[in-house]
Amino acid sequence: MYRIFxxxxxxxxxxxxxxAAPDGAxxxxxxxxxxxxxNGGGGLGxxxxxxxxxxxxxxxYLHKTIRLGRPGRVMPTSALPDADIxxxxxxxxxxxxxxxxxxxxxxxxxNAGRGRVLYAERCVACHGADxxxxxxxxxTFSRPRDLPIMAPALNNPGFLAAASDSMIxxxxxxxxxxxxxxxxxKQGLKEKDIDDIVSFIRSFEKSPRSxxxxxxxxxxxxxxxxxxxxxxxxxxxxxxxxSSNNFIFIREQPLNHGLTPTGQExxxxxxxxxxxxxxxxxxxxxxxxxxxxxxxxxxVVEQNGKVKMMTVNPKRLSKIFNNAELNTLCDEMTKHxxxxxxxxxx
Amino acid sequence: xxxxxxxxxxxLLLGIASTACADQLLMIRSSLSFPEAMMVLQNAITxxxxxxxxxxxxxxxxxxxxxKTDQYKVVFYGKAExxxxxxxxxxxxxxxxxxNVAIFAERDNxxxxxxxxxxxxxxxxxxxxxxxxxRWEKDLTEIVNEVQEAR
Lengths: 346, 151
Hints:
- The structure holds two protein chains of two kinds.
- Chain A is of the alpha+beta class.
- Helix content of chain A is 43%, strand content 10%.
- Chain A folds into two domains: 24-206, Cytochrome Bc1 Complex, Chain D, domain 2 (Orthogonal Bundle), CATH 1.10.760.10; 222-344, TATA-Binding Protein, CATH 3.30.310.70.
- At the A-B interface, α2, α3, α5, α9 and β1 of A face α1, β1, β2, α3 and β3 of B.
- Chain A: Keywords: Heme, Iron, Metal-binding, Signal.
């Protein structure tokens, strides 16, 4: 009787559709490779294949980092199922033979006040006075190719939620070979000193949410302004206003230029493209993904006898980049767009 | 225990606070060189019925002014009838048209990045437009996947 029951179960199990294990390599290629490189060598994001990195992070840390991301620091949150994230973590681990370290969840006990002093001496240069991390997004574009890693933001709520005290402690003790992060033990600090620094880093949790982990909130996706002038005059005014706001006029074309044969374009929708190369260079160095904004443009539209100027709202777009460093630039761009349109409408 | 609770609460809050900003950019890395990836991208755009309207040479502009840059271009594309209909009926979409993809070299690889058209549904919460955005999202996903998978 028991054998028949077991056999029935086996047959039933065999008839069920097989649950395929998530393909970590494929998931990594789709979700991570753009920033971290095909083989984890880094790029916009930090290198994940460095043995010294893998020796100081747990699977739990990697999982939580993928899930929670880094608010305001480019790395997005993920809505992938846990099984997919685990598969990605396994794939990341496959680049190294060493087993994944495990860390105690027990908090490290140290003197945060003393840790503050040591942090100011030893960590500020790379990680910033408030733990805000290095500037930019990683090793790309105008950034030197020989600098393999950006100093992470230690005050970031994503980092603090993902990293245990003992993981941070091990990083401070061992350093990360191949990056500017040195071993503090080799630098002469004692284990007690390192405990104090860990306690100070953990105290960032009690600080108000850093502006470096912030995203701009604004409701308008479009900036619009009415023009009292006709279409042609408004177009000329926008060109002049762009110039007087330190932008170089690039070109003017009907919105559907290239879509319809030359001469048959809609004469009532014209895009004026312009650029401030210094600002452009600063934006690309901060985040090379900002091509979506490029070049700066204002569209002049005539509808039902009324002329309007329209453009994207960079402050609204900034949110989708999850990069707090872009916020200032986007805020500045929004002000420029408004100033140009106001001037053109005078 | 207290510490675990703290981490869990932080994780929960983070999850709630930042779900909206997850994956709002569509970004892929291609192992192709920049010129090859650019060719595959433009082919992938046109085979889906769109027309490339313009390629903005961001890199050339920067280099002329004296800045150092990798290859960096923005490809604009669209469909004539669709653009005409949408701009007539929903003029608020005008600043986001034509659609575009930024493409730039990253060492020997090439990276493509654009905002997910689905994100526009947050910007313009109109049920009629959602169908259009979802169609763009499907097409664009196919386009970037084609570039990513090309060898």
